[in-house]
Each structure stands twice: as structure tokens, then as C-alpha cells.
Design a protein that fits this description.
By secondary structure, the protein is mainly alpha-helical. The protein has one domain. The chain is 77% helix and 0% strand. The two termini are 30 Å apart.
Amino acid sequence: MMDKNRISPKVFVWAGSLVTGLAVVLGALGAHWLKEQISMLDMQSFETAIRYQLIHGLAILILGALPKPFHGLMLKLVFHFFWIGVLLFSGSIYLLATRDLTMLPLSWLGPVTPIGGLFMITGWVLLFISSIRLVGERDEEH
């Protein structure tokens, strides 16, 4: 029976490869077509979104490879903070960077970007806390 606080390693692979693969696709789109369509400043923002998406996609893949003691509620939270952070942070930047092209009124998205960033930061802080707890538990066993 699967513990409800654990995520199957397959989910980390699926989510991590999806997030990372989409970043590669968007990077190719940006490098080969979009750079001619949007301003240099918007292109730099677009590339920032790709970079953070790639980093967090790879981090999600790595989460699934962490030793079993890491797997539990804390790692589940890290996973969710990472993918939601990517969606909010990178997603809002992609939309904002292409708003002149799409002609969509998206100025309301501006505050979403830092919220996504806070989600990603929270994920890293939770991962750090989780590792400190594990080290503390191992020290108590010895």
C-alpha cells in the first residue's frame, strides 16, 4: 500500500521530464523564431523564465532519486512548491514577454511572477529543512 504522503518515483520522472522538455521546446522557439518577434528586453525575460524552468525541472527529476528517508510529506511539499512555482513564475513571464505579440491585456500578471518565485524559494527552503532534520535524526541514532 502506498503512503499518501509519498509520491511515486514515476511522478517525479513524468513531471520533471515534462517541465524540462517544455523548457527546451520554448528555448528553441525563442532562439529560432521569437527573438525576431519581441524586444530584446522581453527576450531576456523569456530566457530567464526558461532558465528557471530548466533548473526546477531537473530539480524535480533529482527529487525522485533522493534516498528513501527523504520521501514523505516534506518532499511532497517541495515537489508541489517547485512545479507550481514554475507554472506561476515562468508561465507569467512567458505570457508577459509575448504580450505585444499576442495583444492580450496581461498587465495583471505582473504580481504573479514574484509569487511564483516565492513558491520556488519555499521549495528550496523546505528541502534544506528536510535535509537538516534527516541529519539530526541520524546523529541521534548514533
